[in-house]
Amino acid sequence: MPYDRDGSVMTAWWGGQYPLIYGTAMSSINAEQPVNYPSGLWSSGWYAGGGPVYVSTIFPELRDIAGLYIAAIFSVSFSDYLTYWTSTDTTTGMDGTWTQQTTKVSPGATGYNGSNPDAYRTDILSVSWPGVKAVQAQFSSFGYGYQLLTWHLYGQPSAGQNPDSLRVWQPTTNAEVTGPLDFGDVTQGSIYTQQFRIANISSTYTANGPITISAETLYDANPSLIPQYNFSTNGTSYSSSVTISSLAPGAVSSVLYVQGTISASAQLGPWALRILAIASSWT
Q: Is residue 14 part of a domain?
């Protein structure tokens, strides 16, 4: 879930301190690799003085959460735990009504291990939390220092939420792509291609062209991932970005292609790209 660029807000609260987590930090903890492992996002730690630490993501609309992967390091691992909470009405991360969604999760449990760089794919904690405004992790009331490594949330806007937007669409069926366009375990020096479309799910507004299709990554490789993935409107000519014409309300584009031409010297490891579809304007 691209919470670092979709209008969501993150907060951290402990010991009376109540700071916001800003864009660069949000991008870091939403990336594939744990940030600054093993020191974490805040190398000095969160010192709660024995009290709990609350970290929240507050969405711009209601969302259905299907999974999460949170990695952190604790200074007193034998007594630390975390619990997950959701709210349908919070505005700050501390107000509103909160519902506890899990019992205590001990270090090393699924969705909680920062030492394995591939864990963000293999240790996702599957959940079903429909129609929530915010997700919160409450860290141990017994620990002293915390370093947040990774904060991944999986899901989508609830039905009827964010209705005026572009979505990645299945290439042959009339349905949204709700999971990744997974290339799987690719090999160096190989070529892989996926198909998709772009849909305007608005019933009112036209997404005016040119609509630009491109990619971004939060955690890059060496050599860079971006030049290794290109787009095409015809499956023959590829470039780093392509444009399509305006999409009327409810319209779906023709089939588009994203191709990975993997360098023979590509760095090994888990990485992901985002597909961006940005309209020139809406009317």
A: yes
